[in-house]
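Bit of a strange request maybe. I'm writing a small parser for structure token strings and I need a real example to test against, not something I typed by hand. Could someone generate the tokens for this chain?
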Amino acid sequence: MANEILLYIGSVIIIMWGIAHLIPTKNVVNGFGAISADNKKIIAMESIAEGLTLIFLGVLPALVTILSDSQSQAANIVYLACAVMLLVMAALTLLTGARTPTIWYKICPAVKTVVAILFILSAVL
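Reply from user aminoacidic:
Good idea to test on real output. This should exercise your parser:
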């Protein structure tokens, strides 16, 4: 039961963080100033892709927990795979966006890492 609570907390956090990535997409694109229409589309696509990926990484483990045994080997594989992906994304953000002056990009690696830890704990408890 404790593992499920940790998992649901992590899932809600990362789903909300994903939604928070989607909302300012237009402002993010406009923040790049006068760039080509193609570049605007690529930046929008990347911003949307990150938000959707984060939402997926929250929804998938929550669905596995709701629809199956949270202690099963399959569930643990899902929790750990999502945690690894979040850690990879945290490292990428740490090396890129977190090096900008934007506070949201600076805290993003920490949010992803905290959720990854919650997912890992969900797999081992």
